[in-house]
Structure prediction request, 137 residues.
Amino acid sequence: VYAVGIGAASAIVGFLAALALDASVAGSMATMTGVFFAAALLFSPSHGLVAKARRLERQRLQIAIDNLLVHLFNHANAAGEEHEAEVAHLSTELRWNPDFAQTIVRAATDTGLVRRVNGHLALTDVGVGQARVLAQG
Prediction:
């Protein structure tokens, strides 16, 4: 159904463009087909390049949040726990730039996985549960 509609639109818009530009009708139709193909390549909701870029960014953030949870879980109730739970230390330990670390901490805090306690990060009960699942593999 979409193919028929796009084909018809390519023909009509190509024909009108050829009339307006005093150009080859066949060439204009072919050009419009290419334009529609490029639009589909970029903006397809499931397979388009824009959708893939957005999906990769969401995955990157989720993996970073998971890394934060496991890091805090592994160092909970251990010597040096407070140091390991400092945002500044996360940048060094997890090799994140400071802005990215702040973004991840904000996302984890906003979703109720982590809370700030006296300038340090601590897992919430939900965060502990998720970290336990992640740590077990």
Q: What stands out?
A: The chain has a mean pLDDT of 94. The longest strand covers residues 114-117.
